[in-house]
Amino acid sequence: MGSLAYAACRPDSIHFDDRTLAHLQIVIGSKLRLRQSFFFSWLDPVESGGGRGSIWLDSTIPLVFDYAKSERHRINRDWLELLMISANSTVGLQLMPEPVEPPLEVDKVALVRRSWSSADNLVTA
Length: 125
Hints:
The protein is 30% helix and 21% strand. The chain is of the alpha+beta class. The chain has one domain (2-118). The strands form 2 sheets. A 3-stranded antiparallel beta sheet has the order 2-1-5. A 3-stranded mixed beta sheet has the order 4-3-6. A hairpin with a 7-residue loop joins strand 1 and strand 2 (14-16). The protein is globular, with a radius of gyration of 14 Å. The protein starts with a strand and ends in a 7-residue tail after the last helix.
């Protein structure tokens, strides 16, 4: 289990599996490299209470990606594209499950919107 440590907002870090973390690093790195700030939201596992979290990401705040294992993961371009569409939206990056099969001629924006509604609207007012 890898973790993402973001300044001092959560001293225990935010834990994601290494595969998810690899995809998040690419998306978050792409946005921050362009000095684009945004929200990142996720659902916590049921085992840890099933809550949700959200942080504001900005290139001026230290961010560390810490992987549990040294192996590199094959990147799923479809998942990456869905995450990037989400990150570029007005609600920010919403972590969604990796697509099992590559979408065939589907509206990727509709897939992202569907994941938002199935995640019980992660964004709060």
